[in-house]
Amino acid sequence: MFILSGDIGGTNTRLQLTEFTSTDELKIISGSRYKNSDYSSLNEIIDLFLSETNFSQSKISSACFGVAGPIINEEVKFTNLPWVVKTSDL
Predict the structure, then answer these.
(1) What is the DSSP letter of 74?
(2) Exposed, middle or buried by CB within 10 Å (0-12, 13-18, 19+), for 85?
(3) Rounded distance, CA 5 to CA 3, Å?
(4) For 8-21, what is each residue's pLDDT tens digit?
(5) Strand order across the beta sheet in which 75-77 lies
(6) How far apart are CA 70 and CA 29, in angstroms?
(7) pLDDT tens, residue by residue, 51-82
């Protein structure tokens, strides 16, 4: 099982792709940091990360993100960014 995780702050986004094996071992496939002001959305960063790692989005079983702001009605509006992230868009 492959998990995409991330720490999405006001300044930087850190993403990591991890594989959990059938024996409950984990292997970090890749990790990267991006300066948020260089991108128009979190989705743009995720797409770039997956492209850089040559990893197909269809292989990802689930994702978990820590975000810098409250989640209200399944969306986050960042204080320091002009981003709105909706769970349905991810």
Answers:
(1) T
(2) buried
(3) 6
(4) 998 999 999 999 88
(5) 71-72, 75-77, 84-86
(6) 29
(7) 999 988 888 999 999 998 888 999 998 888 88
Query: Hunting for tokens 């909706």 — which residue is that?
Result: 86
> Which amino acid, 80?
N
Say if residues 73 and 86 touch (Cβ distance below 8 Å).
no
Residue type, 25: E
What secondary structure does DSSP assign to 10-51, as a single string?
SSEEEEEEEEE-TTS-EEEEEEEEEEGGG-S-HHHHHHHHHH
CA dist 30 → 40, 58, 77 (Å): 22, 17, 27
- Nearest-angstrom CA–CA distance, 90 and 1: 18
